[in-house]
Amino acid sequence: MADRYFVETPIDGPTARLTGPEAHHLIHVMRAKPGTRAVLFDDTGAEFAASVTRVDRATVELQIEQRTEVDRELSLEIVLAVALPKGDRQRWLIEKATELGLSRIVPLKTERGVAQPVEQAVKRLRRTVIEASKQCGRNRLMQIDTPADWPDFVATTQDVPSRLVAHPNGYHAAPGPLSAASLPRPVLLAIGPEGGFTDEEIAIAVTAGWHTVDLGPRILRVETAALLLSTLVAHAHLGK
Predict the structure, then answer these.
(1) What angle do CA 77, 145, 123 make, to 5 degrees?
(2) How far, in Å, CA of 67 to CA of 48, rounded?
(3) What is the pLDDT of residues 5-57, one digit of tens each?
C-alpha cells in the first residue's frame, strides 16, 4: 500500500501539492521521484490515489488518479475534555485518541493541573494528530480546541445530552451510564489532572447536569483514565 500524506487544502482538481513536513518526508525520507505512488487525504473524508509528477527542493506536485470516499470514523461522536499530562505523555494520549476515533479534544485548565496547555504545545499536538491519522487510516482529523478553563467549559456545554466526568464514588463504569441505550449522541467525557478535580470543580459539573463515573479502585494516570473511559463508551456503540 502506498504511503499516506495529508494535504492542508481541500483537493478539488486534477492535481495536488505537498509542502512543509509532508513534502519533506516524501522528498528526503522516501526519495520520491516522478512516478512515485502516494495516497493523499485532505480532512474531507475522502482519500486520493496519486502519483508524483514533479519534485522541487521543498514541494511535491502530484497527479490525482482516483478519489474514493472511505469512512473509518466511529458512528458515535466522542469529545474528550482533559487536563493534559506532562511531556511525551501528551503526545501519546493524542496519538491513541486519534487511533480510537475520537472526534475532538479540549485541553482543560484546572486547579490542580500540572501542565497548563499553551498554544505552542497545542500546535505540536495537532501535528501529532496528522501523523497518527496517516498511520491508522483516518481521513478526517481529530480536532484539538484551544484550551478552556473548566468552569467556562462546563457553562458552555449545557446543551450536550451526554456528559460524563471521571470521579471516584460515581457510577461504576459498567453498566452505569455507559450503556448504549442511556447515551444520546454526542458524548462528552471529562478527565481531570493527576490529583483529580477538586470538590468544587466536581460540584460545578454535577450542578450543571454531568454524571460522575468511577473507573475503579486503582489510581490511574490521566492518559490511562482518558483512554479507558473513551474505549468503554466507543465499545458500547460499536455497530450501532
Answers:
(1) 125
(2) 5
(3) 999 999 999 999 999 999 999 999 999 999 999 999 999 999 999 999 999 99
What is the bridge-based pairing of β-strands 15-18 and 162-172?
unpaired
Residue located via cell numbers 512543509 = 20
Cell numbers describing residue 84: 493534559
Distances from the Cα of 27 to the Cα of 36, 54, 64, 113, 125, angstroms = 11, 11, 18, 41, 23
Give the Cβ contact number of residue 147 at 10 Å.
Answer: 19
Taking the C-alpha atoms of residue 141 and residue 33, their distance in angstroms, rounded to an integer, is 28
Of the candidates 208, 234, 206, 231, the one whose C-alpha atom is nearest the C-alpha of residue 220 is 231
Q: In sequence order, which ranges of 103-172 are alpha helices (DSSP H)?
A: 119-136, 150-156
pTM (two decimals): 0.90
| CA pair distance 19, 9, nearest whole angstrom | 11
Residues 211, 160 contacting (CB under 8 angstroms): no
In sequence order, the β-bridge partners of residue 46 are 69
